[in-house]
Every structure is written in C-alpha cells, then in structure tokens.
From TrEMBL:
This is ABC transporter ATP-binding protein. The keyword ATP-binding applies. It comes from the Bacteria. SMART domains: AAA.
C-alpha cells in the first residue's frame, strides 16, 4: 500500500506520554496539515512519521513496509524531514549547505542531477540570489528558507515539514505553500505542521487536528476548521473572510489567561 502512515502510535518522552494512539496518513499527491495548540504533539508526531522517534506502541508504515525495519539510507531517500529548530548554520555558502540535502544520494555519484536538484530547491525557496552568501549571515526567515531548501533538495517522495512558514513574511509563506502544492501535483506526499489556519485551510487537502497528544479530528479543512472545533481546541472564536479562517478573540474560558498575558 502506498503512503506514509502512523497507526496507533503511542510515544512517551521524559516519562510523559505525549502521543496517544495517533493514526495519521499521507498519500502521494496530497498535503496533510497538522494543526493544534502548542504542546499538542504535532512535532512529536512528525518525528515519529520521519522515523526519528520510535513509537512505544503502534507502527509507522512507508509504502507498505515498516519504517523501523528500513535501512537508514533507504529511509533518507524516501523521506525528507524539515525540523522546527536547528543550530544556526555554519559560515559555508548557502548552496553548499543546501547540497547537504543530496547526501542520501551520494552513492549514485550523479553530480549533474545533484546540481539540478540544488538549483531547483534554491529557486523554489527564493534563495538563488543568496546562494553565494555564508549561511551564518542570513536573517531568521532566510535561514528558515535555507532549511527548507535543503529538505527540498532531497527530492524524496515524502516531505515532512515542521512549521516551515512560521518565520516567513506573507509573500514567502505563500510561495512555500505554493511549492508544496506543486510537489503534491507531481505526486509527492507532504505533511506540514502549521499554526496559520488560513494557510492550512487554503493549501491543505486534509487536516489533522491534534489535542493533548491525540488526533482530535481529521478530514477536509471545511470539516475541521469549524467554529466549534476552534473554540474547543484553541479556545478562540474565529471570523471568516471568504474561505479564510481568522482567529479573532479568546473565548470566555481563556479571558483570565488573556489578562495574565496582557
Ligand atoms: N524531550 C522531551 N521530554 C519531555 N517532554 C517533551 C520532550 N519533548 C517534547 N515534550 C513534551 O511533549 C509535548 C508535545 O511536544 P511537541 O513538541 O510535539 O508539541 P507541538 O504540538 O509540536 O508544540 P508547538 O506548537 O509548541 O511546537 C509537549 O507537552 C512537550 O512539553
């Protein structure tokens, strides 16, 4: 069976259970958005799907095979993972840092293909003009695009991206989501953690709503981004501008917290 799927994944970190029987799938050709409040388990779910964190119970299946049984090199060519945070980049040229994304393919010794993949990734992330700059000199948003470019350069069938647009300005955020759309059109599967509900609703084919380490709901964006779900899971009311869902105010239950913050 093609696709990347977590089935009943339960996982504890530091003695705390942070994922409870989570079942989530990404099929070739679709973008699955993972949404939910801070600490809900989104990153942990993505790391489990990437094979970085091994479940205590349940399995992750990749195109019909158990991920845990795959050779690391094989897995690295099939799955590309973009972490939420990383150390600042070293003072190497941007294009050389992006080329690290080709490491899983080094045995193929196909330099022309590697160069083309790096050029495509730089183009998709708007980094062509910055390709000769040291990575250590980039701004926060430029570094985020560099990390994404390295993940794109792998050209893996599945991309798992943890908050790839959190640091980006609106134009770059839209460009990144559009590039995910092109990946999906080309038959790749994309799972992306997002806090921006408007982007999630607009670009994702399906949404997985996490809450307290569980999958609270999954389905088409219109089924998930309901007033009731946003109120129950985030404690916010929303307004709608066309198809866009805009978090508007804290619900009554959160007003105390709001006062503490302000
Ligand atoms: N190494 C760890 N040890 C113990 N608890 C951890 C560890 N890493 C994460 N957690 C906890 O696991 C829970 C889920 O964390 P996770 O990073 O998956 O959440 P998230 O939904 O991605 O949050 P955010 O939106 O803030 O990035 C949180 O309560 C977090 O405090």
């Amino acid at each position: 069976m093609t696709g990347l799927a977590a089935r009943g994944v339960t996982l504890s970190l530091g003695g705390r259970r942070v994922l409870h029987e989570a079942s989530v799938g990404v099929a070739p050709g679709e973008i699955v958005g993972v949404i939910g409040p801070n600490g809900a388990g989104k990153s942990t779910l993505l790391r489990a799907l990437a094979g970085i964190q091994r479940p205590d119970a349940g399995v992750v299946m990749l195109d019909g095979r158990e991920l845990a049984g795959m050779a690391p090199g094989d897995r690295a060519r099939r799955l590309s993972f973009l972490p939420q945070e990383e150390m600042p980049p070293p003072p190497m040229r941007v294009e050389d840092l992006v080329a690290f994304g080709r490491l899983p393919h080094r045995a193929a010794r196909d330099e022309a293909r590697d160069r083309a993949a790096v050029a495509r990734a730089l183009g998709e992330t708007g980094l062509l003009d910055l390709r000769g700059r040291p990575g250590s000199q980039l701004s926060g948003g430029e570094r985020a695009r560099l990390r994404l470019a390295r993940a794109l350069a792998v050209e893996a069938p599945y991309l798992l991206a943890d908050e790839p647009v959190a640091a980006l300005d609106p134009a770059h955020a839209l460009a990144v989501m559009a590039s995910f759309g092109r990946l999906a059109e080309g038959g790749r599967g994309v799972a992306v953690v997002l806090h921006d509900l408007t982007l999630a609703g607009r670009f994702c084919h399906r949404l997985v709503l996490m809450r307290d380490g569980r999958v609270a709901a999954h389905g088409r964006p219109a089924e998930i981004l309901t007033d009731a779900a946003m109120r129950a899971v985030y404690g916010v009311t929303v307004r709608r501008v066309g198809d866009a869902v805009v978090p508007w105010s804290l619900t009554d239950g959160r007003s105390e917290e709001k006062q503490v913050i302000s």
